[in-house]
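Dear V.,

Thank you for sending over the compound details. I've combined the ligand you provided, zinc ion, with the protein sequence from our construct and run the structure prediction for the complex. I'm sharing the raw inputs here so there's no ambiguity about protonation or stereochemistry in the SMILES, which I know was a concern on your side last time.
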Amino acid sequence: VLGAGIGIPGPIDRRTGTVVQGAILPEWVGINILETFTERLQIPVFIDNDANLGALAQVTWGPHSAADNLIFVKVGSGIGAGLILNGGLFYGNVGITGELGHTTIDEHGLVCRCGNRGCLETVASTATMISLLERTSQGPLTATEIVQMALDGDTATLRVLDDAGLAIGRAVAHVANLINPELIVIGGSLTALGNILLDPIRRGLLRHAVPIVGETTKVTMGSLGDRAEALGGAAVVLSQPSLISS
Ligand SMILES: [Zn+2]
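Below is the predicted structure of the protein with zinc ion bound, written out as structure tokens.
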């Protein structure tokens, strides 16, 4: 074992390896994952945001190794993005990048866990889809059931997914305008939906991006399934030159 790569579904301050406010696991905020796991495992530990690891997996193990500029969007109970710029992960100043889920979509919308209102997550996360569809369902729903209901042609489910896809496309259009990626890869628990979710995302992108950016940016589903983030964790470890040479 060369080392351990750990993905956390929340923002991580890279200066300290600490989970910061805004994580979907509020009880993890302030915990120094890096120190804790290094002490327990006694091997080199690398920690990153799960969407960053998903993005890294796409260019390391996935079919997109030739892409230099790529946005990976993880759509689950939260929404996050990992940015590959000029062939590598982009970390910004302190490591908090790709907070796509907190793009404002409706400023009078629902209150978000980040404290703002009408963020993308309040419109397009699987948690939001579930609460919308549970209003008329017989019992509690899961993301897997939403996928099945959509594939079965359930009208309400398709409508909710269409609204969510349009909002994701709109949010991603702003990022695409800034960085002009080759590719937007959608990951998370809804990838089995294929074009049911991709079509509204493409419409949202085309509607809100600069025309040539919208027209030349490919939008596709990730092919690594729910292993993407774990494969990204392995890629982080294997990308450390000091570990490979020794
Ligand atoms: Zn928010």
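A first observation: Residues 129 and 211 are 30 Å apart (CA to CA).

Warm regards,
I. M.
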